Structures are given as C-alpha cells and as structure tokens.
Amino acid sequence: MHRILLSLLILPSVLWIVQPERSILVLENRNRASLPALPTDLSGLTAWLAGVDAFVADNIGLRDQLIVIKTRLNLMINDHSNARVIAGHEGWLYYNAPQVVERNAGLIFQPERVENMLRFAAEARDLAAAQGARFIAIPVPNSHCIYSNHLPDWARPKGEPLTEQRAIAEGLKAQGLRASDPYLLFRQRDLESQPLYFRRDTHWNNYGAYIAFHDAMVQFGLSHSFPAPDSILKGYVQGEYYGVLDQFLGLDRAAETEPLPDLDMAAFARYPELSVTETDDHVSMDSYEVIYAPEGARLLVIGDSFSYSFFRQYWGAGFAAVHWSHHDYGRYDRTVFERFKPDYVIFEFVDWEVPSWVAFDTRPTAP
Asked: What is the pTM of this model?
C-alpha cells in the first residue's frame, strides 16, 4: 500500500519532466507560467511564493488529466458551471476569466490599465508610421459585454456602466488613433436573430469576425476589395460548435446545438494561399506568414485568437502577403515591422486579456 501511495505521489513529478506540451494551456490562450527568480529581500517573498505556485500549477505532470477529472465532477455537481465557465441562460456559456465579471460590471476599473493599452496602441501606430503603413486598432469586447442579457442574474451588469473596455475604445479615438469599434458595430444589429458570438466558446463567430474586419478595411479605404457583410450572409443553420468552454467543462462534444452563420465565401475562394511559413514564438499561438500573390499590398496583424484564424479566411481578397504575430501581452517582437515592411497594420486585442498585458515601461523594444 505504501509503495502504491508513493508511486502516485512521484508519478506527476516524473511526468513533469518527460511529458510533452499540453493542450489545455493552448485552449486557455495564455503563456505557461515560468519559475520566478528568487526575491532579493523579504518584501518580495509573497509574490515569489505566488509565482512558484502558478509555475507548479501550469507544469505539474498529469495536469490535463486532472483538470478533466475535476471539471467532470464540477459538471455533475454544479450543472454546467465550474471555476472557468459561467452558465448563462438559453444555453450560453461565458469564460470566467480573472476579474471578468467585475470588470464587465464596472465594479473593477483601473485607469492605469486603460492608459497602458493606449500606450501600446500608440507605440504600434508609431512603428507602423515608421514604415509608411496605415494603422488601425481593434479592441474586441467580450461576449459578456455584447450578450450580457444571457448572463445569470448575479453576473449581469446594472445599466451601462463605464468599463475599461469602453474607456479604451473611447480613448483610442480621443487620442487620434484610428480604431474599429466592434461594440458599436454590433450594437446596431439584431443580436438575437443574427448571433455574432458562439454560445459555447469564448470567440465571435465567422460573421461577427467579418463585420469587425470589414469595418477595418473600410477605414483603410479598401472596401472595394471586400463585400459588405450583409451581402455574404445567406442565413443561419442549426448546428454544433464544439467550443473551448465545452472543453473546459470536460465534455467530448457540444452539449447543445446553436444557430451558426452560413456565409457566401465565393469572393474569397478565388484567392488561395500560395505558401504559409510558421514561426515558433514560444507563445500560445505561433506567428505565421501567408503569401497570396507575388506582388501587392502587405498586411501585418498583431493580435490574438480573435484574429488568428477568424480573419485569415478573408485576407486574400485584398492582400498579397499577410504576417500574423501574437501580441504576447505586449512582449511581441517589434522588429517584425521593419522585416515585413507592411502597408497596413491591424493591432487587435480582446478585453478579457487586458489584465495580463505587461506594464508598458517593461516592454521589450526594437533594437
């Protein structure tokens, strides 16, 4: 018996060393916690211990398997909710990212975070301008914000509070930074008859993504290359989308069907990808470069999972080459501007990741 217990205790430590990359961290769309440096004095001991705890939690052997077991138990006990998933009404699920409920309700509002994102956007604008490129920022709202009416009562904001997301979007405009504001674009539409986000995933659906992307193209003066959103929507079909939140709940498939947009992609199918080059950036999603034509306009996208694949299916209609890089929460490689020499730059970031961005003054700078 003692040998069995000892083996159970030792096994995760052994797998810590030999186990390959784990998939759930990729689904969480964040970096694996690294082992923090030893504190230089006692005042840093608490933060160091917290960092060690996060490092062990992210790297311990059998992490994925233990998470699946835990989420299945939570599913049985808590009826489609757990620490990472909020069960809403009408089959909606929401990602319970750190502070997301309080930030969405305006109960947590940190002006320094707003200023931090505005400084990052201004820096990206300046890097684009140095290459003679046109720039636009896309501050992506959470589904909690767009579909707050389906949140459970305890998580639903009262009225329309001032949030960091709205302050960032308004701040971009106030500082003269060109921006596409999906929040305002989406609020003009019938969100129930034309859903723009997946019900069981953290992301917008293909139609929501195209509405935001098309607005950016209009502001770039490229609307002639991209059909209007209403012209490509054929309707909605009931189907399954096995989303990240279903996976966080430990489910093997989507628990329910939902209306999915049916888009006419003929205007984009004429532009196949001629080559794709991927680069391991050691973040949740690798950088990649797509070539559609030998010559023509070049687009650089600094973004996250909301642009990684959702924008990619539309690029060929207006660009000869596109380079996508993960923003790495402010730590992305600035030399990509000079190396790729874009004509256009998109700086996209989702709201629930804003607290994870590094302080602007600690960012790496281009040599």
From this structure: 0.79
Contact yes or no for 243/93 (Cβ under 8 A): yes
Output the six-digit token pair for 105: 């309700």
Q: How far apart are CA 285 and CA 148, in angstroms?
A: 28
Phi, psi of 310 (to 5 degrees): -70, -35
Distance, in Å, from the CA atom of 89 to the CA atom of 264, rounded to the nearest integer, reads 30
Measured torsion, CA atoms of residues 309, 312, 314, 315, in degrees rounded to the nearest 10: 160
Return the residue matching tokens 């730590």. Answer: 331
Query: With contact defined as beta carbons under 8 Å apart, do 226 and 195 qualify?
Result: no
- Residue 144 burial (10 A CB sphere; 0-12, 13-18, 19+): buried
CA pair distance 77, 80, nearest whole angstrom: 9
Q: Are 263 and 211 in contact (CB under 8 A)?
A: no
For residues 241 and 256, what is the distance between their CA atoms, to the nearest angstrom? Answer: 9
Q: What is the pLDDT of residues 199-217, one digit of tens each?
A: 999 999 999 999 999 999 9
* Residue 38 identity (one-letter amino acid): L
pLDDT above 90 coverage of the chain, percent: 68
Largest CA distance in the chain: 73
Phi–psi pair at 29, nearest 5 degrees: 55, 50
Is residue 229 within 8 Å of 180, Cβ to Cβ?
Answer: no
Give the residue from 277, 284, 352 showing the smallest Cα distance to 321. Answer: 277
**DSSP, residue by residue, 110-158:** -HHHHHHHHHHHHHHHHHHHHTT-EEEEEEEPPHHHHTGGGS-GGGSPS
